[in-house]
Amino acid sequence: MKKLLKILGAILLIVVLVVVALVGYLTIDEYKPDATEKTPISGQCDATVQTGTEYTFMTWNVGYGALGDNADFFMDGGKMVYSADKERVRTNLSDISKIINTENPDFILFQELDRNSSRSYYTDELETILGALNGDSLNRQSTFASNFNVAFVPLPVPPIGRVYAGLATVSGYEVSDAERVALPCPFSWPLRTFNLKRCLLVTRHPVEGSDKELVLINLHLEAYDSGEGKIAQTNMLKDIMNSEADKGNYVIVAGDFNQTFSNIDISKYPVLEGRWEAGTINVEDFGDRFTFCYDDTNPTCRSLDKAYADADKDPQNFQYYMLDGYIVSNNVSVNEVQTVDTGFKCSDHNPVTMKFVLKSE
Question: Average pLDDT, whole number, for the chain?
Answer without folding.
Answer: 93
